[in-house]
Amino acid sequence: MEAKEPPIIDFTPFYGPECAAKENLVKELKHACQEYGFFQLVNHTIPSDLQGSILHQSKKFFDLPIEVKEKYSKDIGGFNRGYERLRAQNFEKRTKGDLKEGFYLGKNLPLEDPNVVARKFGQGPNKYPEELDDPAKFRNVADDYHSALTSLAMGILQMLARTLDLEDDAFNEFCQHPVAVLRLLHYPPQEPDASELERGIGAHTDFGAITILLQDTTGGLQVWNNISSEWIDVTPVPGAYVVNLGNMMMRWTNDRYLSTLHRVINKSGKERFSVPFFFSGNPDYMVRCLPSCEDAREGAKYPPITVGEWMAGRYADTYGTSEEKAIGELRKEPEARKLES
Ligand SMILES: O=C(O)CCC(=O)C(=O)O
Ligand SMILES: [Fe+2]
C-alpha cells in the first residue's frame, strides 16, 4: 500500500446537530486514529487572526537578544514555564541537540491557587516577557490562545470518545484542571553543510493525550509510517491544525490507537515557527485501559498510572535525568536501528 499523508478532516459537523455528517466525522476520526495517529483538522472555529497573532507574538519574543530571553529561562523558578534555549532538548541523542528554541506557557495560575499550593504537576504562574514593544499584547494573545485551544481539545476528545463507543462526556473528568502546555517554537534554518543527523526536533512521540499543532507554511514536519517504514511529510495546510495522539491514548486503548513517531528537519533555508498545544489532562486522573479495549486473553498491556506520574517520568526521560532509559527507548525505533547497524 502506498503510504499517504495523514487525512485532512473537516470539523464542521461537530458544531451542528446530530446528523449523518457527524457520524461520518466520527468514522473519519476513528480511521485516522487507528491508521495514522495523526490528522489535520480544518473548520475548527479558531479565528485565523488569533492564529496569526500567536505566531507573530512568538516571532517578536524570539527576536529579542539572547540575554533577555535567558532572563525568562525555564530553569528559573520551576513550573515548567519560560524560555528553552537552542539545543536544550536532544531526542535522538546523536547530535549536540535539537536545532530549535522554545517558550513554554500554560494556564496562568497564581501561587495561592490550591492546585499550585498542592504542587500538582504542571500547575503554576506563567512568565511573560516585559521587554517587548507591547508586553500586554503578548500576554493577552497567549492567554486567549491557550483558552481557545483548551476548548478545542475538549471538543476533539468528545468526538474521540464517540470513536471508542463511549458517551460524549467520557473524558470530562480527565479534562478538569488540565495540564495543558502551549509551546512556542522557533526553528532556525539548518546550515547547508549540516550533518545528516541534524534535527529541528528529533524523532519522538508526544506524552499526553492529544497535541494540537499550528505550523507556519515552511514545512519540515514528518511522521513515521510503520507499514512502509518511511518518513512522510505533513504538508502545511493554511489555518489547519495538525492533531496527533500522545502516549496516553495508546495506554487507554491498549494500542488500538497510535501515538506516532514524528520529527522536524528544517532544510528550507528559512526560519520556521510552530505552536504545539499539548493537552495532558487532570494530574490526578488515573489513565487505565478502557474496558472495551482490553484483550480477551491478555487483558491490558499497560498498568494504570496517574497523569501526574506519567508526565513527570516522561519529562525526566527527555531532559536527561534518565538518559539511559531514553536511549533504550530510541533503540527500539526502526530508524535508529538502521542507523546504528
Ligand atoms: O514543530 C513541530 O512541527 C512539531 C513539534 C513537536 O513535535 C513537539 O513539540 O512535540
Ligand atoms: Fe511532538
Automatic annotation (TrEMBL):
GO terms for biological process: small molecule biosynthetic process. One of its GO terms (molecular function) is oxidoreductase activity. Pfam families: 2OG-FeII_Oxy, DIOX_N. Keywords: Iron, Metal-binding, Oxidoreductase. The keyword Iron applies. Residues 178-281 form the Fe2OG dioxygenase domain. The keyword Oxidoreductase applies. Belongs to the iron/ascorbate-dependent oxidoreductase family. This is 2OG-Fe(II) oxygenase family protein.
